[in-house]
TrEMBL record, chain A:
Main location: nucleus
Name of the protein this chain belongs to: DNA sliding clamp PCNA
Assigned keywords, A-Z: DNA replication, DNA-binding, Nucleus
Localisation: Nucleus
GO terms under cellular component: PCNA complex
Example of a GO MF term: DNA binding
InterPro entries: DNA_clamp_sf (IPR046938), Pr_cel_nuc_antig (IPR000730), Pr_cel_nuc_antig_C (IPR022649), Pr_cel_nuc_antig_CS (IPR022659), Pr_cel_nuc_antig_N (IPR022648)
UniProt record, GO biological process: leading strand elongation; mismatch repair; regulation of DNA replication; translesion synthesis
Entry annotated with the keyword Nucleus: yes
Source organism of the structure: Cetraspora pellucida
Keyword Electron transport found: no
Top-level taxon of origin: Eukaryota
Automatic annotation (TrEMBL), chain B:
Gene Ontology molecular function: ATP binding; DNA binding; DNA ligase (ATP) activity
Family, as annotated: Belongs to the ATP-dependent DNA ligase family.
Pfam family of the protein (one): DNA_ligase_A_C
Catalytic activity: ATP + (deoxyribonucleotide)n-3'-hydroxyl + 5'-phospho-(deoxyribonucleotide)m = (deoxyribonucleotide)n+m + AMP + diphosphate
EC assignment: 6.5.1.1
Annotated ranges, domain ATP-dependent DNA ligase family profile: 413-550
Name used for this protein in its record: DNA ligase 1
Region Disordered, annotated ranges: 647-670
Any one Gene Ontology cellular component term annotated for this protein: mitochondrion
Location in the cell: Nucleus
């Protein structure tokens, strides 16, 4: 038997929102320790990895590990039927799951709705992602990162990120012209969510597709701060941390522009 | 039930380009319209060749038995086929590959066959990929991180999007290389792309194509993109595929290895014959391939038979240039002449055009009429007949052009303006029995017994059993007067009078009015634009845009695209000459449709003589605009280049009034 009850159901909606543009079908892997999802986009350029710890749910029950193959578009349609304040419970039979049951409870009245989503078999390769020491790690307000990506998209399809000890620079060059945004480390004791920090082993300069980055910034509502980790010749890691877990995106850097 | 059509004429303008391509292919490799005898010799040669091979060596790429066939193995085979123009070699490569599949992964044989055919379902199901060039360009750009403008630029340079995709160096590496593609994976993705419609369908198609593209290795991208475009262009004809299918199944027959060399060759030849003839009766690989794998070639005829509901390929007639030529052919045999009606050839309940396209939607009135023409003892049948436009007031036939004005889909019986009459000339299947092996005399008798004529709705084709040139000439004149296309000459009795689906046989001859010298209209037109060539015509102009002259308004009006009638040398000469006259923008006195812009424009500098089979109304050409139809122009069907008219200046070209007259004269046969 699998059952997971989440008091803030809206979180689940936002999570789904941050994944569904990147992948269409994915396996939710359920185990004693929590729920996780890992999937690559169709072009194998980006990867999303989601982890929700069992402690975040109340209650959480999973007797043995199994996978729920879900079409995210269909799941999204059903999630739209949940109210923003609803408590959401996920239920499935872990021995022969052919559907996922979703229960939406309204906190104010007795309204309870229940939906069943048909599951599918998804053949997915699972990548093991090694823990890496990155050359540069940045923490910055997630809204700021979202804005930079959106703004530079006007100029070009790709952005170069240069990181030195005391500056982060985002540069875009396109047919209509160029654009760049510079950020300096700042810290604020009153508002820690607005601080910018750089941890640097060595300077980094890498180019990425803005289409993917803007896609990642759909995770912005999940967290005040976003973490970017970069190393030469390594995929970029973009992480949004939540109380209940994290969502991580990986993106292969671009090579030699035309 | 199955139906067919003899001379489906497609409407402009798509035809031109297709024609260009198919002609190119016929140049070197065998395709449609094959001469039966030549074909037989080719099959025999191929059989002997296979028998003499030391072993049917496996292709270079091997895979584990029971696992899906790697797409790379198919691409390797395509590559070998593309590298040669020798039919024997092509046949050998393909058969060897099929044998390997039958040994390792027989379940993939059907999908492999479809990929070779560049199809995703039987022809009569009419499902198309629906992937245009611009969609592919977008997918290639996104998958490689390149700019669309760059991809387009390369396409103009190479003329082959497949090559562009293959050579596109990706600026966007992947995190991990996807698993290699397999034949079932590629085929099922293609099928799903074809079935994608509705909201965001373009986006979803692009996503699927990107998925396939990123998984491609080496040459795979080239063939994948060409397949998606529906232009495989490796010179692989369906006949070749059918023969390889037959040969590979026969080679794997348990008894085969014990035969002598001579017998082996005979066995392979017979197998090709059986598979081809069964396919023409039941043109569905979905049925034939599993049956072959189960019962082998010998059981095929027993298990796959002409079935109402699966349209068979109609028998085609061999064109002749004169009555005497036709007579020479049938000398010493009993034969008959029939009116050749100009319409769409057809069957029952479900109506299929010659290309086996389902046109039942277009003719609900035909379906409705059927019950009244069928005699009580007739339970099931497949008819070969022609649908012709009919004028119920004057009780006469109307030209094909009228028929083609009928709506193609969702026709409601009450809205029908163009009445049609069905002219039956052959009966292929009656009350559960196939009649293909019977003589024409017998089939005709059964036809007359099973149906009854109703004036203006259903009739038997008019015929006359003549024997000399004068009688036939008189009958031909009569048929032309009755708005028919000409005559069909058919042998009545014996072996040669059997119905041979899909064969362009010399047992049926057509004497068309256009073939008779002097008929067929010739026009003098001005070249005002051109389209860049693709495939073999890369780096020269492949197709040209022609115009007639309107002296009243002093303007040139577009009339057709032309891509037929050119030799490689003449294309080069045209390119050299016209290149000098390219202009960046069309002249203000060019009247053309914005939707049919050529790649380059020319000054009015040269007049070409062009022959055409027919003229038709067209929404995208402007010739004689306002003369025939207030908003549509006239266009040429099947235009053919004859020569340059050095003696004529552009202003001396055929005028819009002359075009209108030519159009009208088509209706003045009475």
């Amino acid at each position: 038997m699998f059952e997971a009850r989440l008091t803030q159901g809206a979180l689940l909606k936002r999570l789904l929102d941050s994944v569904k543009e990147l992948v269409t079908d994915a396996n939710f892997d359920c185990s004693e320790t929590g729920i996780s999802l890992q999937a690559m986009d169709n072009s194998h350029v980006a990867l999303v990895s989601l982890s929700l710890r069992s402690e975040g749910f109340n209650p959480y029950r999973c007797d043995r590990g199994f996978s729920l193959g879900v079409n995210l578009n269909s799941l999204n349609k059903i999630m739209k039927c949940a109210g923003n304040d609803d408590i959401i419970t996920l239920k499935a039979d872990d021995s022969s799951a052919d559907s996922l049951c979703l229960v939406f409870e309204s906190p104010v009245n007795e309204r309870v709705s229940e939906y069943e989503l048909k599951l599918m078999d998804i053949d997915q390769e699972h990548l093991s992602i090694p823990e890496t020491d990155y050359d540069a790690t940045i923490l910055m307000p997630s809204a700021e990162f979202q804005r930079i990506c959106r703004d530079l998209m006007v100029v070009s399809e790709s952005v170069t990120i240069d990181i030195s000890k005391d500056e982060i620079r985002f540069t875009a060059e396109g047919e209509l012209g160029t654009g760049n945004v510079k950020l300096k480390p700042t810290s604020s004791i009153d508002k820690p969510e607005e601080s910018i920090t750089i941890e640097l082993g060595q300077t980094v300069s890498l180019q990425f597709s803005l289409k993917y980055l803007t896609n990642f910034t759909r995770g912005t509502p999940l967290s005040e701060q976003v973490m970017l980790c970069l190393s030469d010749n390594m995929p970029l890691l973009v992480e949004y941390k939540m109380d209940i877990g994290y969502i991580r995106y990986y993106l292969a850097p671009k090579v030699g522009d035309e | 039930m199955g139906l067919k059509i003899e001379e489906v004429k497609e409407l402009e303008p798509k035809v031109v380009e297709e024609k260009v391509q198919s002609e190119e292919e016929i140049d070197t490799k065998n395709d449609d319209g094959i001469d039966a005898e030549k074909e037989m010799n080719a099959i025999k040669a191929s059989a002997t060749n296979l028998v003499n091979l030391v072993s049917t060596k496996a292709s270079d790429i091997d895979w584990e038995a029971g696992t899906p066939v790697p797409y790379a193995a198919l691409c390797k085979t395509f590559e070998k086929i593309e590298a040669t123009t020798k039919r024997l070699e092509i046949q050998e490569h393909l058969t060897t590959f099929f044998v390997q599949i039958i040994e390792h992964s027989p379940d993939n044989l059907l999908e492999t066959l479809y990929l070779c055919l560049n199809r995703i379902c039987p022809e009569y199901e009419n499902l198309e990929l629906g992937v245009g060039e611009s969609l592919l360009i977008k997918a290639i750009a996104e998958a490689t991180g390149r700019k669309t403008s760059k991809v387009k630029e390369e396409l103009t340079k190479w003329g082959d999007l497949g090559k562009v995709a293959k050579d596109s160096k990706s600026t966007q590496p992947t995190l991990v290389k996807p698993k290699p593609l397999t034949i079932p994976a590629v085929f099922s993705k293609m099928k799903s792309i074809a079935n994608t419609n509705g909201q965001d369908s373009q986006e979803r198609k692009i996503r699927d194509i990107k998925f396939l593209l990123t998984a491609c290795r080496g040459d795979e991208a080239k063939y994948l993109i060409r397949s998606l475009e529906g232009k495989l262009r490796i010179g692989l004809a369906e006949q070749t595929i059918l023969i390889s299918l037959a040969q590979s199944i026969a080679l794997k027959d348990p008894g085969y290895q014990n035969l002598s060399k001579t017998l082996k060759a005979e066995e392979l030849t017979a197998a090709a014959d059986i598979v081809k003839s069964v396919y023409s009766e039941v043109p569905s690989y979905d049925i034939i391939v599993p049956t072959l794998l189960k019962v082998g070639v010998k059981g095929l005829r027993e298990d796959c038979k002409l079935t109402p509901g699966i349209p068979l390929k109609p028998m085609l007639a061999h064109p002749t240039k004169s009555i005497t030529e036709a007579l020479d052919r049938v000398e010493g045999q009993t034969f008959t002449c029939e009116f050749k009606y100009d319409g769409e050839q057809d069957g029952t309940t479900k109506i299929y055009s010659r290309n086996l396209e389902d046109s039942s939607m277009k003719y609900p009135d035909v379906l409705e009429k059927l019950s009244s023409i069928v005699k009580p003892d007739t339970k099931s049948f497949v008819l070969d007949c022609e649908i012709v436009a009919w004028d119920p007031e004057k009780n006469c036939l109307l030209p094909f052009q009228i028929l083609s004005t009928r709506k193609r889909k969702d026709v409601k019986e009450s809205d029908i303006k163009v009445c049609v009459c069905l002219y039956a000339f052959d009966l292929l299947y009656l009350n559960g029995e196939s009649l293909l092996q019977k003589s024409f005399t017998e089939r005709r008798e059964l036809l007359y017994n099973a149906f009854q004529e109703i004036e203006g709705k259903f009739a038997f084709a008019r015929y006359m059993n003549a024997s000399n040139v004068e009688e036939i000439q008189a009958f031909l004149d009569e048929s032309v007067k009755a708005s028919c296309e000409g005559l069909m000459v058919k042998i009545l009795d014996g072996q040669e009078s059997r119905y041979e689906p899909s064969k362009r046989s010399r047992n049926w001859l057509k004497i068309k009015k256009d073939y008779i010298s002097g008929v067929g209209d010739s026009l003098d037109l001005v070249v005002i634009g051109a389209y860049l060539g693709r495939g073999k015509r890369t780096s020269v102009y492949g197709t040209f845009l022609l115009a007639c002259y309107d002296p009243d308004n002093e303007e040139y009006q577009t009339i057709c695209k032309i891509g037929t009638g050119f030799s490689d040398v003449s294309l080069e000469n045209h390119f050299k000459f016209l290149k000098e006259h390219e202009i960046p923008e069309p002249k203000t006195y060019y009247n053309y449709d914005k939707g049919a812009k050529p790649d380059v424009w020319f000054e009015p500098c040269q007049v070409w003589e062009v022959k055409t089979a027919d003229l038709s109304i067209s929404p995208i050409y402007k010739a004689a605009l306002g003369k025939i139809d207030p908003s549509k122009g006239v266009s040429l069907r099947f235009p053919r280049f004859i020569q340059i008219r050095e003696d004529k200046k552009p202003e001396d070209a055929t005028s819009n009034d002359q075009v209108a007259d030519l159009y009208r004269s088509q209706f003045r046969n009475e």
